[in-house]
Amino acid sequence: MLSNMPKIVSSPPSFSAGVVDCWSVVCARCAKRRSERRDIIAEVYETELKYGRDLRIVMEEFHRPMLVAGLLSSDQLAGIFLNAEELIQVGEECMSL
Prior knowledge:
Blueprint: E1 7-9, E2 19-21, H1 22-69, H2 74-80, H3 84-95
Parallel strand pairs: 1-2
């Protein structure tokens, strides 16, 4: 009965009769997962880009005008916009990898 079982090979793809290519089997089984992983990575990347863009807009449209107008002290602004510049910088560094 074992002689009728297909052979599993661990070499690069071959499609010989009676031989099951483990590379093809693994790829077929994992294709959906790989696709889902790619989609998730793309979504995380796009979300991070948008977050960085939005954070820069907040700094330009709110922080700078408040600073220039003197509506709040530097300490108050630092407390409100805590680590915003660092977040922008880290996001840009991550996106450049």
